[in-house]
Amino acid sequence: MRFARFVLFASALPFAAIGLAFLVAPQELAAHVGIALVNATADNDARAVYGGMQLACAGLLAAAAFGGETRVRAGLAAQLALYGGLAGARFVSVALAGVPSALGLALHACELLALGAGALAWLRLARGATAALEAPHGAAIRRARTADLRELLPLVEALQREEGYAAGDARLGEALATLLGDGGVGSVLIAHEAGAAVGYAALCHGYSIEFRGRDAFVDEIYVAPAQRGRGLGRALLRALEAEARASGVRTLHLEVEQHNDGARRLYLAEGFRANGRELLSKSLVE
């Protein structure tokens, strides 16, 4: 995620520089690319069309760079479309009109570099978010989508019942839907075996001064009773850690029920450590 944010911010800089140049000195910049601005109306149009449009593109990409995961993905899609369109148009121009000026070649090189960086950032995000992980016993783990809500909800409710939490609350489905639909909040992994959902793991994002940046909470891990003892819980936890790393998370936290010795052994074996603190909670809703 850090690389994707860097690519978006860096991609915004050329748009910002060209946009500002057209606002301040449209005549001079237009002359460099062979455009003649013959009167004040042409100057104003250049400021609006070239300056304003370029600055708008810069603002779009920069805003996406500082947003959540969903905004970053949308920003990368916009970056690929913008730079892909520019690079493609220059290829057509070369084919029709011949080799451009030195400035045109430099701009073309920058556009191709940005396009390549954007494609790489997109692939890295896609690899971390959607690539399936084969569990030791053959179950497939992938990132859950909004369309998986109906399949996931019974597993979530089963966990709630096993742990003695309040199940059947309509807000449970709403909370799960938010997590599935907003990558900035967190993410959910779902495990399938023989076409059926058999487990899931939920990650919720946070931020910490103590841990120097983004942290995250392993909110829930659940495996259906018939599939337990075969390594699926460990596979879900490791896949969730990979998901967290891809999202720029620096530290993972989790809580474990005092009576759940099996889960405690798993978490300790996977590198989690007690921090000598007690977790306290206070509900802020009636």
In words, what does this structure look like?
A hairpin with a 4-residue loop joins strand 4 and strand 5 (213-223). The chain has helices at residues 2-24, 26-32, 40-65, 69-97, 102-130, 149-162, 170-181, 232-246, 261-269, and strands spanning 133-134, 140-143, 186-193, 196-208, 213-223, 251-254. The chain is built from nine helices and six strands. The longest helix has 29 residues, at 69-97. A six-stranded mixed sheet has the order 1-2-3-4-5-6, sandwiched between helices. Helix 3 (40-65) crosses helix 4 (69-97). It has two domains: 2-130, no CATH class; 133-269, Gcn5-related N-acetyltransferase (GNAT) (Aminopeptidase). With 286 residues, it is of the alpha+beta class. The relative contact order is 0.09. It starts with a helix and ends in a 17-residue tail after the last helix. The protein is elongated and about 80 Å long. The mean pLDDT is 82.
Top keywords for this entry?
elongated, 15% strand, 286 residues, Aminopeptidase, single chain, six-stranded mixed beta sheet, 9 helices, 2 domains, alpha+beta
Brief write-up:
57% of the residues lie in helices and 15% in strands. By secondary structure, it is α+β, with helices and mostly antiparallel strands. Strands 1-2-3-4-5-6 form a six-stranded mixed β-sheet, with helices on both faces.
List the helices and strands and how they pair.
Layout: H1 2-24, H2 26-32, H3 40-65, H4 69-97, H5 102-130, E1 133-134, E2 140-143, H6 149-162, H7 170-181, E3 186-193, E4 196-208, E5 213-223, H8 232-246, E6 251-254, H9 261-269
Parallel strand pairs: 5-6
Antiparallel strand pairs: 1-2, 2-3, 3-4, 4-5
Helix pairs in contact: 1-2, 1-3, 1-4, 1-5, 3-4, 4-5, 5-8, 6-7
